[in-house]
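Handoff note, outgoing to incoming analyst
You'll be picking up this chain. Sequence as last confirmed:
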Amino acid sequence: MRFDIITLFPDFFASPLQSGLLGKALAKQIADVHLTNPRDFTTDKHRRVDDEPYGGGVGMLMKPEPIFAAVESLPVLPRREVILMTPQGKTMSQPMFQEFAGSYDQLVVICGHYEGVDERVLHLVTREVSLGDFVLTCGEIPALTLLNGVIRLLPGTVGKVESLKAESFEAGLLDYPQYTRPLQFRGWQVPEVLRSGNHAEIDRWRKQQQIQRTRDRRPDLYETWLNQAKD
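Most recent structure output, in case you need it:
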């Protein structure tokens, strides 16, 4: 799968793309990440990528010409999505990552800066995506989150595929509590059921814990799961 990141700060991705599972996935060519700087497509001597907004206002906007030129310089794969990282977009979710991982050959991700991008950039965009209901200094942080969330779902990235099926949000519920050695730590003990060897009881306990944890911590998710279970 090909990822094209349109960013004014390619160095931001240097360390993350070489670390952990993400680095291993790229080394195995499970995914390819290409970084394109819109500043390289400016035509003025100052290489300006931003300007003042019409009508006045605080801050600067990213100009449309360098972004258009950067995106139009890229190869076009058959199943392609052009994404703008923006607080106004749809919030990232596990189903969104699953859709991207399973339905697309190429994701082009535009990282905004300053006060955002010229509205005409939306003519390039097929989807607006947000990390959440807050504002960051740059679009690189949510873009990296998107990369990580999608690439880890691609076949071959995670060693045990089963581990992807038992995660938070995979069944609409949060993950169950997990424990490892030692058996006792500062007075806290591993639940007896997990030491019983009774896999049916363990599965039942884990499902109950998922439901209880989701109800207590994320009542919004719990209500959605409850409605889907009724249907």
